[in-house]
Amino acid sequence: MIRQGNKWAHGGDAVVECLLYRGIRPRNDPYDFELLYGFLPPVVECLRKQETINALNIYATVQASDRKYGTESFYQSF
Asked: In terms of domain of life, where is this protein from (predicted)?
C-alpha cells in the first residue's frame, strides 16, 4: 500500500494533471507540462489507451528524476 502511494506521489499522472489546466483558476504553464510529459495538456486529455498514458507517466518520472535515465531511443520516442 505504501509502495503504491509512493509510486503515485513520485511518478505523477498525466491525465490527472491535465485537470489542473481547467476550471476557475487553471494553471498557466502548459509548456512546462509539455516538457514533463512530451505533449500539451489538450493532447493528453484525448488519450484513452492506458498503455499510452502509462508510457507518458514513465517518461515524466524519468524527466523529473535526478537518478533515473532513459536510453537514446527512449528520449527519441517523445
From this structure: Eukaryota
In this prediction, residues 35-43 reach a mean pLDDT of: 95
Nearest Cα to Cα of residue 44 among 13, 67, 19, 15: 15
Q: What burial letters (b/e) apply to 49-59, b meaning 16+ CB within 10 Å?
A: eeeebebbbeb
User: Residue 16 in contact with residue 41, Cβ under 8 Å?
Assistant: no
Domain range holding 45? 2-76
The number of domains in the chain is 1
Total-model pTM: 0.76
